[in-house]
Inverse folding.
């Protein structure tokens, strides 16, 4: 359970991110323990949180890295991740990004279209190299998650559709500077129903046979990420159930000898260790509602405004106070700058500390300077 050192917070300017490093440690250890049972390989999806201290800890724990831009590859190398654990996905890889990956001999390019495959081949030829590639396949599996974070359906821009796959592999056979490594998937994010991953496994089994019948052996099966966390009750579920998660893939993937299973976990690794800490500026009695106006806004944590996501809001100063209803809103000049409507919260007063929980993933990394605000600082439980 995350403990908030309020006395120490009093000296700090709000809003800021506060990371529970013990919880991160516990989470990483559990991922390692559960994935090692089956010899699974885990890459951390760096886009979820690219904070140096967090990355350093993840590196120490031996994770690989999943990147979706050249900037992320640079960052990973800077922190000391080795290229043999770096995989690179994304629908719009620019030439310099591909060249960077080739220069460092990263483990794999996860290719999302035929034109991209041709460009990777051309740039690899120019560099006198062979690029290892896996095809990101859009398996048309519904992740039953918010439509903004669903990626594995035919209408999404990601991956190669099943109907184009034949064409892509025929073309690949003519290209001399790409080497086929396997299949890659990523069907969406914040997926809490493990049946969706079971469906993915079953689809992968069919696809494997399809590849093998065309004389291509997928040595690597990269199932992506997407495992969800409990945003409603982070106290009861500070660490996701990685045991059940990895077991689904063990139980339902029909693996052949020599195959490796890779994962790209982002949110499930870092979400619960991060909190956005803010102070109440004003309590405003509106016509129909009571507003708690806090000094953190959508520039600090955009998920509610962007995906209609909800994060648990907690009054740290007055946890036992009489419950009242509040719309908790930020100071930004946008109506979507809200952290929740009609929330039952202990009475809020000016100056109270508020924690917005489960903000470690897609939080700090999406900070913007809209309204010319300053970027929030980050503090860590072990050094504050
Ligand atoms: C974002 C992303 C991930 C991580 O997703 P989470 O839901 O944070 O686990 C993994 N793979 C790819 C290709 C991604 O784009």
């Amino acid at each position: 359970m995350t403990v908030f050192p309020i006395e120490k917070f009093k000296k700090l300017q709000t809003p800021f991110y506060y990371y529970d490093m013990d919880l991160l440690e516990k989470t990483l250890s559990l991922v390692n323990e559960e994935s090692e049972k089956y010899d699974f390989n885990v890459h951390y999806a760096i886009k979820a949180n690219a904070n140096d201290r967090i990355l350093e800890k993840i590196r120490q724990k031996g994770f690989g890295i999943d990147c979706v831009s050249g900037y992320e590859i640079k960052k990973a190398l800077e922190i000391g991740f080795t290229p043999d654990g770096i995989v690179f996905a994304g629908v719009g890889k620019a030439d310099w990004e591909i060249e960077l990956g080739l220069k460092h001999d990263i483990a794999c390019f996860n290719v999302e279209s035929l034109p991209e495959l041709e460009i990777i081949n051309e740039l690899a030829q120019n560099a006198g190299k062979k690029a290892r590639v896996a095809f990101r396949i859009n398996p048309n599996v519904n992740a039953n998650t918010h439509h903004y974070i669903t990626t594995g359906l035919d209408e999404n821009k990601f991956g190669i559709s099943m109907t184009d796959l034949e064409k892509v592999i025929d073309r690949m056979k003519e290209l001399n500077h790409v080497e086929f490594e396997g299949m890659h998937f990523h069907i969406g994010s914040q997926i809490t129903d493990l049946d969706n991953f079971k469906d993915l496994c079953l689809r992968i089994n069919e696809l494997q046979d399809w590849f093998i019948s065309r004389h291509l052996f997928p040595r690597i099966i990269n199932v992506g990420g997407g495992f969800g966390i409990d945003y409603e009750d982070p106290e009861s579920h500070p660490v996701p159930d990685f045991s059940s998660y990895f077991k689904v893939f063990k139980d339902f993937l029909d693996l052949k000898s020599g195959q490796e299973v890779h994962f790209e976990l982002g949110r499930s690794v870092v979400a619960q260790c991060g909190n956005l800490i803010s102070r109440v500026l004003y309590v405003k009695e509106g016509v129909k509602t009571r507003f708690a106006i806090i000094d953190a806004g959508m520039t600090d944590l955009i998920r509610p405004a962007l995906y209609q996501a909800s994060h648990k809001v907690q009054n740290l100063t007055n946890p036992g106070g009489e419950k009242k209803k509040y719309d908790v809103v930020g100071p930004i000049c946008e109506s979507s700058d809200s952290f929740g409507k009609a929330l039952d919260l202990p009475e809020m007063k000016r100056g109270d500390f508020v924690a917005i929980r489960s903000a470690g993933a897609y939080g700090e990394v999406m900070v913007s300077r809209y309204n010319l605000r300053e970027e929030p600082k980050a503090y860590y439980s072990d050094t504050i």
Notes: The chain has two domains: 6-15+272-380, 21-270. The chain is about 30% helix and 25% strand. Residues 45, 47-48, 66, 68, 89, 186, 189, 224-227, 264-268, 361 surround pyridoxal-5'-phosphate (CB under 6 Å). Residues 124 and 130 are 6 Å apart (CA to CA).
